[in-house]
């Protein structure tokens, strides 16, 4: 029986286990705990949980419900023998009491503060488990598809996967939609699953955030907490001087507690749903793996034992680990477990015993491959290589002749970093160490590059590996990784038609002044920064720079600090865990799978240009006074420089849309796009994002102030107008507007939104699969036309036919106008200058 609080001002002893106040009942009293401890517990759906305990004297259990004026959202039970006083009160009286009796008010606010802190911990623990379950479900779902690609009859291996909201089985719908998102965001599914894949965070591809933390930035809450943490005499005096502070604090804390309690309910519900999908019923994910094992055991499956059994063993162990964590949080076993886990354990034990010899043989084979057994590693003496690269860090530091004091600090911090379980941990102290190491690393890199260049590009192998790939310390990589790097180092670079450069080749061009230096992260050029440094010297143009300041070394240093270093950081994809030195902790997919060569870039580029043939087009001025052409605007495609930087990650950076910003030839200069040498995802997808950014920035640069002027149609103006006014569009349904609004929340800028739609346009719409809405389709068909053969293919579909006819009419008219205009420039044979002929051809449909 709960306490009878109808008697005023009573002091009641309570035995352990007795209920003081029951959840769902009205709160009608102010309660003060004099001694003992109570336990706060609740039931969320079918799940019971102990939220926290309140121990000690001068606490006010249940104050939240009284001040909010709602029934108790929890049950309060005596944990030990307690003594409690109750005072009959309603919400209004309670608020008055807080300000009229400051000591009681402080007691209530301190209790709320303690409860919020404890509730926050509980929410955090459930959120953490929920995040682990979600990541496990998503990864296992992807692996289930890799093992059984026929589960979706309309999807052929290697083809695009589209979302399908009509699938009845919720687990299969989750797998399908996850895979669609995975592809859209550049994820590459491995040919066969691995434990490494299962343990990695693929949230960026699945459109998921597996964060185990919750956002909580209540400034007022933290301000009052600081006041309460000072000397009680000081805080008491402050509240007595202004009792309204107590009321304000109490109201803020009640609001915060309610938000946390609702978040607790949501996280518990989400966790329960995921666990049901994992374990409960015939559609559970584990049941699907049980079925896979049954098919394998009966010979109907062709999956090798060495592929399937390690996966199911991982699923078994991971499930048990998560269930144990659930028990620790909730104090009891998961009630709806069913028998799917027991079945999996039984099948796993039987098949592991039956195929133990195959599993052992596979392990031995993998160890042999690690010692060098594939074409890339052929001819490499692993033992001799290990001797040659022994103490690589010392070799590189000695070669660079870096500052001894900086080297000493660098070496100390490297030792400390290598002692961490994961050197890439985003924890603040770890980040600080990495930043300090990175500063010295880039100084060493610059000095090593200069010496290497001056020595005819000859240096110890460790130095060459650093300059090309960001290698530094052999102990930070596995032997197989090192052999892979060395095998790739001396491979032919290919002969691409596009301007694609290894990072070292690019820096050499900068050093020799073959190309101008890049801008920094603030958009400043080498000349602008030098002009600021020498502001009293009267420099007005680049010609005025003293030769002592404009040297190859100065330009090289500027390029490394302004462009090279930032892009190594940004292409890594995760600033919080960035480290410029390549380690095994960076390598989330096999190194040979993510290595990017010049030919790989060329293939990805040609794939995009085969669809979006105007990707790098711009209007430039053509002059030919010999035949009377003073100024003619013509279309020209100018492919940017692609630079492979020593980095690993899932990001390609569009750094500059032009390399010359003022004067003659600026609009005809190449842009600059930086690609990590190791791309942890689909190169084509990331290239699409970078080229979308290039298109956007080039359009802004060319148009200047008119880039968003809808009176001058352009891709930036029309798309910006769409983003601003899509909610008022008559061409979009209310449901579609809501979907667009939800999608847009994922992106920071209009350029990001454009890049996402651009990727869908090239990957899906070019195949006739409608993935953008009709407003975006109209904008893109006008400004980003498909190649002629694709236009002819999609024009037969109703969604494109009207757009195609409009495009065709406009282009035909433009072609006719240019044809008539250019007649006066033809020679006696009826031929046009090459530039005008190409421009005329551009407008042909």
TrEMBL record:
Gene3D superfamilies: Jelly Rolls (2.60.120.10). This is Crp/Fnr family transcriptional regulator. Residues 16-82 form the Cyclic nucleotide-binding domain. CDD domains: CAP_ED. SUPFAM superfamilies: cAMP-binding domain-like. It comes from Leptospira jelokensis.
């Amino acid at each position: 029986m709960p306490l009878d609080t109808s008697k005023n001002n009573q002091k009641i002893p309570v035995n352990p286990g007795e209920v003081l106040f029951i959840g769902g009942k009205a709160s009608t009293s102010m309660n003060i705990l004099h001694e003992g401890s109570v336990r706060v517990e609740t039931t969320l759906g079918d799940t019971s949980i102990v939220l926290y305990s309140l121990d000690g004297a001068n606490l006010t259990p249940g104050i939240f419900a009284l001040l909010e004026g709602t029934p108790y959202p929890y049950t309060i039970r005596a944990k030990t023998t307690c003594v409690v006083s109750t005072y009959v009160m309603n919400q209004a009286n309670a608020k008055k009491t807080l300000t009229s009796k400051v000591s009681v008010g402080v007691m209530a606010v301190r209790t709320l503060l303690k409860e919020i802190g404890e509730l926050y911990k509980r929410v955090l623990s459930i959120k953490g488990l929920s995040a682990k379950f979600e990541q496990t479900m998503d990864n296992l779902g992807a692996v289930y598809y890799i093992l059984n690609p026929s589960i979706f009859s309309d999807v052929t291996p290697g083809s695009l996967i589209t979302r399908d909201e009509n699938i009845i089985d919720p687990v299969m719908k989750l797998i399908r939609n996850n895979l669609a998102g995975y592809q859209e965001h550049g994820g590459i599914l491995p040919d066969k699953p691995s434990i490494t894949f299962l343990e990695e965070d693929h949230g960026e591809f699945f459109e998921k955030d597996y964060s185990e933390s919750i956002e909580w930035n209540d400034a007022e809450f933290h301000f009052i907490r600081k006041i309460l943490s000072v000397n009680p005499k000081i805080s008491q005096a402050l509240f007595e001087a202004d009792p309204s502070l107590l009321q304000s604090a109490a109201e803020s804390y009640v609001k915060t507690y309610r938000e946390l309690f609702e978040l607790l309910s949501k996280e518990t519900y989400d966790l329960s749903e995921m666990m049901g999908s994992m374990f409960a019923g015939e559609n559970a994910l584990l049941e699907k793996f049980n079925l896979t094992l049954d098919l394998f055991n009966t010979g109907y499956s062709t999956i090798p034992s060495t592929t399937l059994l390690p996966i199911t063993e991982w699923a078994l162990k991971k499930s048990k680990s998560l269930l144990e964590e659930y028990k620790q949080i909730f104090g009891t076993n998961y009630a709806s477990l069913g028998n799917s886990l027991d079945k999996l354990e039984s099948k796993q034990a039987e098949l592991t015993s039956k195929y133990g010899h195959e599993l052992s043989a596979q392990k031995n084979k993998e160890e042999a491959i690690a010692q060098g057994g594939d074409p890339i590693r052929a001819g490499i003496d692993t033992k001799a290589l290990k001797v040659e690269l022994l103490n690589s860090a010392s070799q590189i530091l000695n070669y660079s002749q870096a500052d001894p004091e900086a080297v000493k600090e660098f070496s100390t911090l490297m030792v400390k970093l290598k002692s961490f379980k994961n050197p890439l941990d985003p924890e603040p102290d770890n980040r600080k160490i990495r930043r300090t190491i990175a500063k010295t690393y880039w100084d060493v890199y610059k000095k090593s590059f200069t010496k290497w260049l001056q020595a005819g590009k000859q240096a110890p192998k460790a130095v060459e590996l650093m300059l090309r790939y960001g290698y530094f310390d052999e102990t930070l990589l596995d032997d197989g990784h090192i052999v892979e790097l060395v095998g790739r180092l001396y491979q032919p670079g290919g002969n691409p038609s596009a301007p694609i450069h290894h990072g070292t080749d690019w820096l050499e061009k900068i050093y020799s002044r073959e190309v101008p230096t890049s801008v920094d992260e603030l958009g400043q050029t080498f000349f602008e920064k030098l002009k600021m440094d020498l502001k009293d010297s009267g420099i007005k143009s680049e010609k005025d720079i003293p030769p002592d300041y404009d040297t190859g070394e100065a330009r090289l240093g500027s390029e490394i600090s302004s462009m090279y270093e930032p892009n190594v950081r940004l292409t890594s994809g995760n600033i919080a865990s960035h480290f410029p030195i390549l380690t095994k902790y960076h390598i989330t997919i096999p190194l040979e799978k993510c290595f990017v060569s010049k030919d790989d870039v060329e293939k990805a580029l040609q794939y995009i240009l085969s669809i979006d043939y105007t990707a790098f087009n711009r209007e430039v001025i053509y002059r030919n006074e010999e035949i009377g052409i003073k100024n003619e605007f013509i279309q020209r495609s100018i492919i940017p420089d692609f630079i492979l930087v020593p980095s690993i990650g899932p990001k390609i950076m569009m750094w500059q849309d032009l390399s010359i910003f003022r004067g003659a030839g600026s609009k005809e200069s190449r842009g600059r796009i930086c690609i990590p040498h190791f791309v942890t995802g689909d190169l084509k997808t990331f290239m699409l994002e970078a080229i979308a950014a290039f298109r956007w920035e080039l359009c802004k640069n060319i148009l200047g102030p008119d880039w968003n002027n809808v009176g001058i149609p352009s891709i930036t103006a029309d798309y910006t107008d769409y983003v601003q006014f899509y909610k008022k569009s008559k061409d979009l349904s209310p449901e579609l507007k809501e979907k667009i609004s939800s999608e847009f929340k994922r992106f920071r800028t209009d350029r990001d939104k454009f890049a996402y739609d651009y990727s869908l346009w090239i990957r899906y719409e070019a195949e006739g699969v409608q993935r953008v809405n009709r407003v975006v389709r109209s904008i893109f068909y006008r400004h980003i036309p498909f190649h002629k053969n694709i236009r002819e293919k999609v024009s037969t579909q109703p969604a494109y036919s009207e757009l195609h006819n409009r495009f065709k009419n406009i282009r035909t008219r433009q072609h006719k106008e240019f044809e008539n205009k250019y007649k006066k420039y033809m020679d006696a044979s009826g031929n046009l200058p090459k530039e005008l002929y190409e421009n005329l051809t551009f407008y042909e449909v």
